[in-house]
Structures are given as structure tokens and as C-alpha cells.
Amino acid sequence: MFTGIIQGTGKITRLDITEKHAKLGITSAKMAQKDLPLGASIAVNGICLTVTAWNDDEFTVDVMPETMKRTNLGNLTNGSLVNLEPSVSVNGTLDGHIVAGHIDTTAELIKRTETENSIELRFQVPHKYDPYIVEKGSIAIDGISLTVTMAENDVFGVSLIPFTIANTTLANCQVGDHVNIEVDMIGRYAVKQIQAWKKEF
Hints:
single chain; 201 residues; mainly beta; Elongation Factor Tu (Ef-tu), domain 3; 2 domains; 6-stranded antiparallel beta barrel; 14% helix; 41% strand; globular
């Protein structure tokens, strides 16, 4: 389980991709083996993955084909930066919102507006995810817990504050880029229950 509060960024140092499997090598100045042992869960761009090896300052994660299809990991190259968040401890603080690390879909950036102290981003998602994205609700974009500032049909917006701009990769996102989306877990279950209730009546 994660919170969407990014603990640091990492650099892709190795990409071993086949039709059936992928391994990523990642280095990060803020992630050490003592804090991220073998078998530990880590969110990489919002995707819950398992640390399977360490080699000096590089750790390895394995990626299944389904994950490659459903996320933006296939767009990564050597040198790409990714957002990193270790799993939250039981006695940790929930500063963001409940994030499972299970990506629902990807969204395309369709508009980017820079202001004096923020960056406004608007994304388009597949229509089937509209019911789960609401204004003032929570959403995880590439693993970052953000508040939805607008939502209309299949388009939603978020605003990046200076801290998010400086400490995550999202400020580098350009129009046409795709990001990983995990809708709010509570909202997902609420919609599911409402749909079930409507079927009964």
C-alpha cells in the first residue's frame, strides 16, 4: 500500500524487455538496500513492483506483460526518470491518499499551462473511467497523489505546486505524453456499489 507521496526520483539504468517479461534496473540517491531489501514493494511511476536484486547502488524490479500493456513503462529508455515511493509502514502517516499501485489506465496530456508558481495540466482518459474521476477528488498520476481541479466528460485537470514540480517527474510531461492513472480506490468501490444497487431496483 502507498500514499502517493513521492520519496524521490530514480534513473533507469537497465532495460531488459522481451515479449513475456521485463526487468528494469534503477538507481536513486534516496533509495538504499538497507531501506529497500529484497522482496520489498516499491511504486515505480505508481506501479507496485517488487525488488528482486541489488547490484551496488542499482536495484532490479521485474515487470509482467500485463503491466507493460496497461502502463507507460514501455515508453521508458535508459536515462529516463521515474517517481519512487516505498510501501507505507503500518505506523506511517497517510499524507496523500490510499494508493494500491495497481494502474487502471493511461491518460494523454492534452493541455499544459505554466503560471508564476504552478503548472496546470489537463489529461484525457478513456471514457469508461469518467465516473471515477470527480472534481476535488483524489487521483494518482505516475504515482503522485493529486487533487482533481476539474472533471468534464473524459477530461480532467490537476495543478502542480512548486514542491511537486521540483520533486517529481510530472513537470517534465509534455502535450502528447502518456501517464499512469490510478483512480481513487474509495470512489471505485462507491461507484461499484451504486451500480449494483441500480441493478436490484
